[in-house]
Design goal:
mainly alpha; 3 helices; 0% strand
Length: 119
Amino acid sequence: MKKRILAYLDYIDNLLLEEDRDWEEEIKKHLVQMVFFAHERLVHLIVMVLFAIGTIITILYLNYSGELIIFALVVALMVLLIPYVMHYYLLENSVQKMYVQYDAMQNKLKKAFSMNEEK
């Protein structure tokens, strides 16, 4: 997923360097991708929060029981939780960047529309 979202962001950044495009069509395609990635972000948020709650419950149980096996479980959960938070961070920032790209595409469309009206 990381490779796909970063490649898509680069593609749109390069597309925004161009002037002569069918921006209406590009905006439609971009909106579809934004919906896909926003949905992915939401799913990862839900799973990450549930995973974090489970980790906290396990830590609380470790404080209560003091068992070594529970300590091993806490370490394993933390090892998994940290990369998951990093992945969610990537998704969140990427979707936010897509919003900025969408605004830039809208500006390109308005500029192209106003140039056509002047002719």
